[in-house]
Amino acid sequence: TVYRGEFSRDQQDGHGVESWPDNSQFIGEFKEGKKYGHGVYKWPDGSVYHGKWDHNMIDGPGIYTGADGRHYSGQWQASAMHGCGCYQWVDGRCYKGQYVLDQKHGFGVFNWADGRRYEGFWAKGRQDGLGRLHNATGNQRLARWENGERKAWLEGEEDGKDAKNPEAPSK
Questions:
Q1: In a domain, 64, yes or no
Q2: Where is the signal peptide (predicted)?
Q3: pLDDT class for 161, splitting at 50, 70, 90?
Q4: Between β-strands 34-42 and 25-31, what pairing exists: parallel, antiparallel or unpaired?
Q5: Alpha carbon 114 to chain centroid distance?
């Protein structure tokens, strides 16, 4: 590892650049030898994170852009998506809502590229609890979900397009 930047008491402290043999790089603020404050981390594959750090961990508001174009903007804790955020996939899918330790958890809205939408509750990355499923033509139904599976329609008209287990949204 190579560090170029400010020091205090023989530790990285202030603005600096830390580089690794695999071509990953951190450009930003250090405090008492640790990444702290605002910084940019670049992975060898081209993925980039811009945002807050605390004790060498991604922590606070930040934006991650994957080498393949995936994009997350929101809160982080201990280097995991944690809190409110928006995750967008390159195929047009999008999730806006709550995360706990990198998984959809709490209330959120998931949009598919074909116009379908789920608005409701999540647990451990899957639909869980009450949720409203909208099809691409605007029809909607309220349902009860458990572990990603629809258990019961609670209202509305079935239109044939909404499957029992609509495409499982991935992280």
A1: no
A2: none
A3: very low
A4: antiparallel
A5: 21
Angle (CA) 8-13-4 rounded to 5° is: 100
pLDDT per residue over 23-66, tens digit each?
Answer: 999 999 999 999 999 999 999 999 999 999 999 999 999 999 99
Token pair 């709490």 is found at 106
Cα distance between residue 18 and residue 7, in whole Å = 13
The CATH number that applies at residue 135 is 2.20.110.10
Residues 6+ apart with CB under 8 A from 126: 104, 145, 147, 148, 168
pLDDT in tens, 120-153: 999 999 999 999 999 999 899 999 999 999 999 9
Give the position of tokens 């023989």: 10
Asked if residue 8 belongs to a domain, the reply is yes
Q: Is the dihedral of CA 100, 102, 106, 109 positive or negative?
A: positive
Q: Return the residue matching tokens 């609890």.
A: 129
What tokens were used for 71? 């994009």
Nearest to 63 by CA among 40, 44, 35, 83: 40
Task: Please answer whether residues 93 and 118 qualify as being in contact, where contact means their C-beta atoms are separated by less than 8 angstroms.
Answer: no
